[in-house]
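Hi R.,

As promised on Friday, here is the backbone we talked about, encoded as structure tokens. Could you run it through your design pipeline when you get a chance and send me back a sequence?
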């Protein structure tokens, strides 16, 4: 029977692609969690999309048994976390369930933006941190330089760091020994009354909702009646187990352990992440602090290309929502695109992952409208409304001012690209707050409106710096901005799906670009079509799509031709006026996609 002193709970944190999942594989293999035959690369990345893109999206847990060099038995609970900025919410939850972290830094790349973000989260959670320098088998590896960088940029002592290679397995034994010597065991008492933290939950089509918990005090057993403190609902525990990484049933989980329970809950919304679980007969006086719910920051409309697939899209979104509580959606209709959904995401990668999963897993052709952020609109009557869709902006006469979300961006780049990056940030209305150097790399801090970053900032950063710069951000609140709604009118009719919120200074340029693009993409009709960009009632840009001209004069020759020609031309003119009045302009799908691409270019 294990005592609490022999347990080590730790998270693996790092920037994208620095080797978290590979080192987790090596540790699982070394501790005998899976046999040689069951092992595969990135064994904890279970989704197809995670394996294809080589990124971790969902945090995963494993319980391993390890015999140390002095012959003692230990239990290691590992949580492998995502590295991308959009999934930092997954990281923060995982850190609360552990006492320590192992920080993996690629010794060929050094410290990057996400490394900083994740380390600061671990420090805020009072974690003991072990730095690990990965990829030492590569010729470009610079262990001493990376150590100095960790000390300079992050401020962590690297005297207890471990050089290793996730690829060859070198240094894995040292990592395991270092975890046992350096990381503290969990605090807690198994004789106290039950207190658990709900770390994560997901839907399993056979078992219902699976709840991942960290037992703080007491023990949780099969057939025990438990209570969720945020909802006051009571349930009976049907199953208790751990992941090794395969699910394995247990009789009970004691204090300090991480595992899962199944209680027959069918609806994921009944399990709130960060909730406290206690025994129904012995309720706790106060709940654990938990953590803030994730808030979507980027919104866009998802519409099926074929309107008959609307139900399919609705079912697909409902199924994805079961396993991703950070994503939200509500129905929306557009006169141009038909029925669809307004969806909220944690960032652009999150948006990309969800749309790709919808297209792949549910076979739906999707059209995505321009991604936008949530604005706070302050009205004259002291009311504040949250605006997600620009076409819902109230009448400007009742608006006092509009606030937009701002972010604090951290960019780490080799110094030869610094000038280009500063130029981009200034074009995006950024305010520089700090600039530090570590060797030949610059650490740049900017405050930028989120709206400017949402489209293409990361792509442009990567292309300017040949992929060497890294970027991370956190939201710092809303600030007042000179924002206007740019409406696009085709044949005098506003197209709601193309409405966008832009800064006053950029409105004319963007309006002109959109009109020029639409002029090329909307097919010609029998009548002339004006394409206009407007702010309120003021037209700021216009292009005209010429109508087809049918030659009605070919058959006319001989006497009195002039009057007959005039008559026919007048008749044609009246017909064109009438067709313009009643004719509807169909805007093809390519036109919407083309306009979305402008913003990306």
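Update: got your reply. Pasting your designed sequence below so it's all in one thread:
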């Amino acid at each position: 029977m294990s005592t609490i002193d022999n347990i080590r709970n730790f998270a693996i944190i790092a920037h994208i692609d620095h080797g978290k999942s590979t080192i987790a594989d090596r540790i699982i293999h070394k501790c005998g969690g899976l046999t040689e035959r069951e092992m595969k690369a990135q064994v904890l990345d279970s989704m197809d999309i995670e394996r294809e893109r080589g990124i971790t999206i969902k945090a995963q847990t494993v319980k391993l048994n390890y015999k140390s060099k002095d012959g003692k038995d230990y239990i290691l609970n590992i949580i492998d976390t995502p590295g991308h900025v959009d999934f930092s919410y997954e990281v923060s939850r995982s850190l609360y369930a552990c006492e320590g972290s192992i920080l993996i830094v690629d010794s060929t790349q050094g410290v990057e933006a996400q490394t900083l973000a994740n380390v600061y989260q671990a420090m805020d959670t009072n974690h003991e941190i072990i730095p690990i320098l990965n990829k030492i088998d590569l010729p470009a590896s610079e262990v001493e330089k990376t150590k100095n960088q960790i000390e300079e940029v992050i401020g962590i002592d690297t005297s207890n760091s471990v050089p290793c290679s996730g690829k060859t397995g070198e240094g894995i034994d040292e990592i395991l020994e270092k975890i046992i010597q350096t990381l503290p065991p969990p605090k807690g008492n198994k004789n106290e009354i039950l207190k658990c933290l709900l770390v994560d939950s997901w839907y399993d089509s056979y078992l219902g909702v699976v709840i991942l918990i960290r037992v703080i005090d007491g023990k949780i057993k099969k057939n025990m009646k438990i209570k969720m403190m945020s909802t006051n609902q009571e349930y009976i525990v049907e199953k208790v187990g751990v992941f090794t990484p395969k699910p394995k049933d247990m009789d009970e989980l004691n204090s300090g352990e991480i595992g899962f329970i199944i209680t027959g809950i069918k609806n994921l919304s009944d399990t709130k992440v960060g909730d406290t679980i206690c025994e129904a007969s012995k309720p706790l006086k106060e709940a654990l602090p938990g953590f803030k719910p994730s808030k979507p920051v980027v919104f866009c409309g998802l519409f099926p290309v074929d309107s008959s697939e609307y139900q399919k899209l609705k079912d697909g979104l409902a199924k994805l929502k079961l396993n991703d509580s950070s994503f939200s959606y509500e129905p929306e209709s557009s006169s141009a695109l038909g029925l669809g959904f307004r969806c909220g995401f944690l960032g652009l990668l999150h948006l990309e992952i969800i749309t790709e999963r919808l297209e792949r897993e549910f076979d739906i052709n999707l059209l995505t409208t321009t991604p936008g952020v949530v604005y706070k609109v302050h009205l004259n009557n002291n009311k504040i409304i949250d605006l997600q869709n620009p076409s819902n902006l109230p009448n400007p006469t009742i608006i006092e001012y509009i606030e937009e979300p701002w972010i604090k961006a951290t960019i780490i780049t080799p110094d030869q690209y610094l000038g280009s990056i500063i130029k981009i940030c200034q074009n995006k209305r950024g305010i520089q707050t700090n600039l530090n150097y570590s060797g030949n790399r610059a650490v740049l801090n900017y405050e930028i409106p989120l709206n400017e970053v949402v489209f293409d900032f990361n792509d442009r950063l990567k292309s300017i710096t040949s992929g060497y710069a890294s970027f991370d951000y956190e939201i710092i609140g809303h600030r007042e901005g000179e924002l206007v709604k740019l409406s696009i009118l085709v044949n005098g009719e506003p197209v709601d799906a193309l409405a966008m919120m832009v800064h006053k200074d950029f409105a004319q340029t963007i309006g002109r670009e959109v009109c020029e693009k639409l002029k090329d993409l909307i097919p010609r009709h029998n009548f002339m079509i004006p394409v206009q960009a407007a702010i309120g009632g003021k037209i700021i840009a216009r292009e005209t799509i010429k109508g087809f001209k049918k030659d009605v004069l070919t058959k006319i020759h001989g006497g009195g031709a002039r009057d007959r020609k005039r008559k026919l031309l007048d008749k044609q003119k009246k017909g064109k006026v009438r067709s313009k009045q009643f004719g509807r302009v169909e805007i093809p799908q390519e036109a919407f996609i083309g306009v979305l691409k402008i913003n990306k270019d």
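One thing I noticed while checking it: Confidence is low (pLDDT under 50) at residues 42-58.

Thanks again,
M.
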